[in-house]
Amino acid sequence: MNRIKNIRVLSEKTDVGLFISGSAAAKNILFTGEALDVLPKREKQLFSVYDDHERKESRHIEEGTGVPMAAFLEMAGAEDADEVKIRSVDGFESVVSELHARRYYFPGLTAGDDTGREVREPLVSFYKNGKQAKYYPHPTIMFGQQGLQDKNKDFFAKGARYLQAGNRDRAFWVKGDRLTCSRYFGVDQIFALHEDGEDAVALLEIAVVADGTFVVPGIRLEQHFWEEELGLAPIPADGCFAVAASGEELALDPKAANYLFFTGEDLKTVGFYDGAHIVEDFAGIRAGEIHTADTPKEVRLPSVKTEGDFYIRVMREDREISCYYYNQEELCQDYADLLTEEDYLYYNHNMNQGKGGMRRVTGRGFPVTGLLNLLPEIPNPEYIESGALLFQIFTNDTYKEKLAADGNELGVYRFMLAYEQDQRTETGMEKGDTSAWTDEDLHFEPIRGTTPFRIYCGKSSANPAVYKNVEGMKVILL
After folding, report:
1. Is pLDDT at 328 greater than 80 in this prediction?
2. What are the contacts of 313-322 at 24+ separation with CB within 8 A?
3. Pairing of strands 416-425, 435-436
4. What's the pLDDT score for residue 325?
5. In this structure, are residues 177 and 291 in contact, taking their beta carbons and an 8 Å threshold?
6. What is the pLDDT of residue 398?
7. Residue 84's beta-bridge partner residues?
8. In DSSP terms, which residues pair with 131 in a beta bridge?
9. To 5 degrees, how large is the angle CA 138–CA 139–CA 143?
10. Bridge pairing between strands 416-425 and 405-406
11. Which of 211, 271, 284, 430 matches a 20 to 30 Å C-alpha distance to 245?
12. CB of 399 within 8 A of CB of 154?
């Protein structure tokens, strides 16, 4: 039985301040920027901060003022979460594991002295050294050190907009033969679907049978969603349907005022509204026809049994069921049919003498989905697209992706195992550049690092877009 009897749009544009979600959260919580601005930010703490980025060390003391992160997690029912993923307004992502481990403030950090240490809990800080944090009212999340040599600066996320406890919550899918690949969206991705960006969340008043009214966040699906996110250009006049979890379909007009909105007080599920019809148990959108693949399955395995340049571990229910090792020479020879070149453009915080800038990279290598589809454990490409697996990428330096990501991202963001690259900026004068943007010729150079590979993907910020010194990945079958 439908519980919602009426929907009224109250506001088309309200900014997202901080959104807390994830599989470890009992409910998702949205704070608007205005709500964050009026929070009492009374707790003042000193943090010792150690950074070793690009082999340049810095040790200093910073003062933060804000609210303990534990208070936000408690409101979301995520007190027991041991890992959080933080995403900032500029696309930067950081993953913090061992959340409940002891972390400290070392007043003698600059002198290498660990005496007088004090326990520090993570702080959602709105001020740094008495001044408003960068991107205020979006906070900086600050962490203590587990030891004097702990490089805790790696975890500081300025302008935090999303805090994910556990793995991503699924929201809805888009399938059909009008798409290049199926898409699966998480609840944390919904606000980015608006063409005005993530500061354009709509507010809808929901009238529920026998329960009165309440206000929920949502977004309007406009041109950006259909053309940029789904690649449907020109936007089709027909052939698109809103699909309920029951399988019932509602014909939709992509050019109409269509809204996605969060249903329920826990903001864990999504509904669809086109101004006249309501789909409470919204599952996804069908764009064209959904066909079952009939391509024969090909299996191709590397000959190396142990200690290659790159590995893929396949897991099910916390148990390894197989592990495959690849070396560069064999990949270039026996997997040459997969070899491709892809362009990636992302924002790098460290360019332009720390002021930041855009870098374009043309990578030469192998699509990660191409390698996975040749494994016997992956029945067909749709298996990856459907998100029937999670994945983690591991490097042999200090950065490792802790939280597993949705397998659907592998195709959507074009993950590539690259062994050569052409790095370029507008001026061609940045460290590591191979050429300038105006140089039409490609100047490939081998990947230089502790491994012969990097993984690139089509995300907006250097932190999630580049995995340096990559040594392998874990695939978790669901």
Report:
1. yes
2. 313/472, 313/473, 313/474, 313/475, 314/375, 314/377, 314/475, 314/477, 315/474, 315/475, 315/476, 315/477, 316/476, 316/477, 321/377, 321/477, 322/375, 322/377
3. parallel
4. 97
5. yes
6. 60
7. 96, 165
8. 128
9. 155
10. unpaired
11. 211
12. yes
